[in-house]
Predict the structure.
Amino acid sequence: MIISGKQVQSILKTYGKQFNNQVNKPENTKKASKTDNLAISNESKIKHKIMQSLKNSEDVRTDIVEELREQIATGTYTVSDEEVAEKMITRAIVDHIV
């Protein structure tokens, strides 16, 4: 899964707005017996799942790092110019769209 910086910023911006709206609302002290209701939109549920996935994911994929370290040490590590170019272009397109 590719998560761009713009996607993360969008999520943080949304949660920031929600937090600011909650902080800036004046409290209604006249109705102390009012019950609270909570409705969460599907979009918010998805964003919450994404944030939880980001929090639970490993920062370093040790198996891949170890494999690359071994390839570099033995001199068998090669980089495909075409794959690098393709990934750079794909990433630029994704960042532009999102």
